[in-house]
Amino acid sequence: MTKKTLILIGFILLKFILQYVLISPEYDLQRDEYLHLDQAHHTAWGFLSVPPVTSWFSCIILLLGNSVFWVKFFPALFGALTLLIVWKTIELLKGNLYALILGALCVLFSSLLRLNTLFQPNSLDVLCWTAVYYVLIQYINSENTKWIYFGAIVFAFGFLNKYNILFLLLGLFPAIIISNQRKMLLKKQFYFALIFGIMLILPNLVWQYRNHFPIVHHMKELAATQLVNVNLGDFIKEQILFFIGGLFVILAGLYAVLFYKPLKKYQVFFASFLFTLFIFIYFKAKAYYAIGLYPIYIAFGAVFLSEVLNEGWKRYLKPVFILLPILFFIPMYNIAFPNKSPEYMVANPEKYKKLGMLRWEDGKDHQLPQDFADMVGWKELARKTDSLYALIPNQKETIVICNNYGQAGAINYYTKKGIKAVSFNADYVNWFDLSIPYKNLIRVKEFDENNEELKETSPYFETATIGGQITNQYAREFRTTIFVFTNAKIDINTRLELEIREAKNYNDK
């Protein structure tokens, strides 16, 4: 085993270790993770908010026992593979050992550590972006058309994971047209590969068509409720912070593909970077959508710096570039990860506020960063729901309906009673089992000081009570209330059919 291989293995092991130790055990899973894990029980070629690939990994996690260890394993794996591709890209570009170590450090000690803590499509999205760029470099080097087919496969897999990879295509295509690489478009293999890629994603496109293109509704809702709050200044600031320790390496990479002779044949990457970033800004995309854009430029920059820093006094800068990612990681360690208690964050809000971490998607500042607030209170909700469910004599005729997918997913993940909670929110609207004649209802809903739910629903049941609330004040779901209604006076199933139809009609619109 060579020295380089041993160092690579060391980086990958360190990556996995960090992904597990950077989360304090007092935090639960994050809101979105529960939805993705529940998709394993409802496999399909698409879902209302995401394509199908995440559900495939959820099925694997379920087969492995559905433990938190495996939930965290796969995003860590995708992050490790991203590091591996950057390493292999540097080798492809004839980078030396210094370039390999520099590139690995810049990828390791970056925002990917935060991204790779969550079981969401984002980690695999970054991996697919990096892999597509790697394939393009391979093609430019060899002009072997097999890489065009590999590119189609990687892109299709990325598309089936997260539609965000379309931004890569929108930025890369005009860059190819204005570069020397446009000759690729004259090859018949390019169009065969294009058809092949379309065939791979066709099942999802058919699913979208049959379900009236829910992605369109999802994007409109996203634009109206979240993207409208995206600020250009914050977007640019976050781009800098994502790879702050490797910022000079990325800038060096952009310079290198434009002016450094050994790398000038990759000039298409400079134009692609500009086009893609402009498109993200134009559409007011969330800042993290662009993370996949950067790892490949770390490879270019590491190779360039490993060469130019060999001359004269510049060689003394070599250890500086090595130390920068590590030094910037130290303050990142203290801020960017859920490794501090909520009490600590509330008592020391200045540093979080300074970086805009307390600003949520609603455009307002809160006690905790939104992701962290979305990682507490879920076990409490599931435990209390289980306890109330156990008190109902005819449990099989009891339905648990939640106000959002986080509540439903968390109850289903932690339940000890086999509850199958549902919601009229997100994919759960398609997961109601109406073959059971329901007589009782457990309703989980955000806090309302007037208890409108109790007033509106209690007339339809013989008994109605408030069973409990989430008491963790740091949870985004703080004071979410659990209502219990038993012995229905109406046909619950008929009422549910009407509400499900209304919810689906709203989604179609």
Strand content: 5-15%
* Spatial gap, N to C terminus: 59 Å
Rg from alpha-carbon coordinates: 25 Å
Low-confidence stretches: none
What's the number of helices?
23
Inertia-based shape? globular
Going by helix content, strand content and strand pairing, the class is mainly alpha
Give, in spatial order, the strands making up the sheet with the most strands: 2-1-3-5-4
**Helix and strand pattern:** HHHHHHHHHHHHHHHHHHHHEHEEHEEH
Q: Find the count of extended strands (DSSP E, 2+ residues).
A: 5
Mean pLDDT: 93
Helix content: 55-70%
- How is the biggest beta sheet arranged? 5 strands, mixed
Question: What do you see in this structure?
Answer:
The protein is mostly helical and 509 residues long. The chain has 23 helices and five strands. It has helices at residues 3-21, 31-38, 53-63, 68-92, 97-108, 112-115, 121-142, 146-161, 166-177, 188-210, 214-225, 232-242, 247-259, 268-282, 295-308, 318-335, 342-347, 350-354, 370-373, 378-391, 405-414, 452-457, 492-508, and strands at residues 398-402, 422-423, 440-445, 461-469, 481-488. Strands 2-1-3-5-4 form a five-stranded mixed beta sheet. Helix 2 (31-38) crosses helix 21 (405-414) and helix 4 (68-92) crosses helix 15 (295-308). It is globular. The N and C termini lie far apart (59 Å).
